[in-house]
Amino acid sequence: MCVIICIFIIKGNNGSKTIDGLFKRLTRAINNTDSQAIIKCFPEFMQKQLPALSNKSMEEFHNKVGDISFDIIRRSSIEFEDIENEINSQYNCNIKLERCALVECKYHDDFGAEIFEVIKIDGRWYLCYISHFPNPIQYFAE
Questions:
Q1: In this structure, which long-range contacts are made by residues 6-9, counting pairs with CB atoms below 8 Å and at least 24 apart in sequence?
Q2: DSSP 3-state assignment of 17?
């Protein structure tokens, strides 16, 4: 029974049940300059292939900008068959997306809005990485 509970806790450590929860996790990760917590916002099959994130760049960003907060401006569901095919091809997997959405966020008054692509797999929302990170995550990529 302990093994089952431990596996559940580990598996539940990635993604979020809601889009709002996902962006709260991302906010905490960036404000705490925690690159591993940012990576856990992505599905496990993407995590190993993500570009490295620089803690030094995160610290520099945080020292200049301070704490941020993702305020969701707009969400829109999008067709996901092409995205699902692209993910399966790029990551050599066979995932089945439940949903896919574009989420427009503002995270600081000094910066414009950013659009994040998010995907839902097995009841959990994740950030999606196809070819580049949205800002501010892109600032931290090595």
A1: none
A2: coil
CA atoms within 13 A on the CB side of 104: 6
| Rounded Cα–Cα distance for residues 36 and 23 (Å) | 15
Q: What is the pLDDT of residues 60-111, one digit of tens each?
A: 999 999 999 999 999 999 999 999 999 999 999 999 999 999 999 999 988 9
- Domain containing 109 equals 15-140
Spell out the residues 6+ positions from residue 85 whose beta carbon is closer than 8 angstroms to its own: none
Tell me whether residue 3 is in a domain.
Answer: no
Q: What is the pTM of this model?
A: 0.88
Chain segment 34-67, per-residue pLDDT in tens:
999 999 999 999 999 999 999 999 999 999 999 9
Identify whether 64 is part of a domain.
yes
**Is residue 116 one of the residues assigned to a domain?**
yes
DSSP codes, 49-60: TSPPB-HHHHHH
Question: How many independent structural domains does the chain possess?
Answer: 1
Q: Compute the distance between CA of residue 79 and CA of residue 60 in angstroms, rounded to an integer.
A: 37
CATH number reported for the structural domain that contains residue 74 in this entry? 3.10.450
Residue 99 lies in a domain: yes
Phi, psi of 119 (to 5 degrees): -130, 150
